[in-house]
Fold this protein.
Amino acid sequence: MQIPAFPADLAAPVVVALTADPDLPAFSLGQVLGQWSLSPVPTIATVWVVGLYLYGVSRLRARGDRWPVGRTVAFVGVGMGSFYFATASGLAAYDTTLLSVHMAQHMFLSMLVPLALALGAPVTLALRTLPQRPRGWLLALLHSRLAKVLSFAPLAFVLYIVSPWALYFTDWYRASLESVFVHEMMHVHLVAVGALFFWPLMGIDPLPGRLGYPFRMLLTVLTLPFHAFLGVTIMGQSTLLGGDYYPRLAEGPMGSWLPDPFDDQHLAGGILWGSGDLIALSFFGVLFVQWVRSSMAEARREDRRLDRLEARERAAASTGGGDG
């Protein structure tokens, strides 16, 4: 598939506009952990979402109700922590400089963040803490046709599969490199599509159209070849994603350390392939544990039901014997 060419006079100025520091030092783990920014969108989103979640948990505890610590850790620590790390740390500083760094950020936002947020059960928390009227609005939304459409598993699966192909093999990816707004919206899109796919499969919240565990397992397994195929396709491309964007970066001060764009693209495809399969297998493990726990809970409920029936039968027999 051919990547459309972009005129040099259009590409050059936006590189400087998007990359606040056009002379970044050589990429390293130290730079990932040391390059932090207070970008408004991820910072405000993280503060508000974490604050509202912790406020809900504090309200539950204040009235004596229990909320599992694991859910808080999943949502705040892993979910929003990974979101902020991916959008404000060195990953964000280099995500328009190296395709391989962008790909690592992509995997954080599209897979790890949605899973952790779903395991935090924020909808359940909201239903237990919101005042009556907002809770009614939320319940109406959960039972709406829109919610049923968005939580329809085959549709969410298609969106999850098609979106990366649309991102990397259309003009959308080049636009995300040249426009701050498109770049931020791409981050939102990755999280949103990942949430649409994984929330009904892995989440604890009450959502319409929940599938049985065998079908959830099947959809999770189907994601494995998808990441491998997309990664191999990117690795085998004879044209560069983003057109001449990355070669132009090498013409500036960073040219002394930037890798060959084709080598970096090959590494990016390998990151997508390897990390996609690894995280998908983790999803598979989480789903399997949930299935086992659900089966055990169902078995306990059935045992209690049978115990109640047996108790009634003994009571009836005892009463009948006494009357005789």
